[in-house]
Amino acid sequence: MSALYVVAVGAVPPKPLEWIEAAAAEWFPLPVARLPALRMPERAYDPARGQYHSVEILKAVARAAPANTTRILGVTEVDLAIPVLTFLFGQAQLDGPVAVVSLCRLRQEFYGLPADEALLRERAAKEALHELGHTFGLTHCSDTRCSMSLSTDIALVDAKGGRYCPRCGAHLVRRFAALDGEQS
Ligand SMILES: [Zn+2]
Ligand SMILES: [Zn+2]
Description:
Elements: E1 3-9, H1 14-27, E2 32-38, E3 45-46, E4 51-53, H2 54-63, E5 69-76, E6 80-82, E7 85-88, E8 90-92, E9 98-102, H3 117-135, H4 154-159, H5 166-177, H6 179-183
Parallel strand pairs: 1-2, 1-5, 4-6, 5-9
Antiparallel strand pairs: 3-4, 6-7, 8-9
């Protein structure tokens, strides 16, 4: 049976993984399962930037995917970057099986503020839905309340909702209907 896998890359506390699994289970008609945490790939660290190469983490997540993977979402605490962007909240293969989301800049502590568990939960769910939406072929949405709207800073993450808009939702429903064919 196919599954949507969640896997920590490096050390991640259990709660955010559970929140992300709950959000995924709410929206995606797939069994959601956890894989054992992966070690951070050594080559992912960029000492010049003090950040981690998102693409290397995506590759590590892809390598860990079991044969019955429909989608696999890596979750990490490290700060992600790619050469042309100063940071990423997450990254996904458009219409591909693999995505990653970082909790680093979703934590209030990153901005010098006291930890806020409820806010972290909301943000983690939004960004997990956003990246998983990409894996099901969704591009950025012009509805600023939709989880698929592009967030380039934390204020924009907070401004959007933890749901897909009707248009993105309808796209997902069509994709879910085609899932059986995709797996055969
Ligand atoms: Zn995006
Ligand atoms: Zn939308």
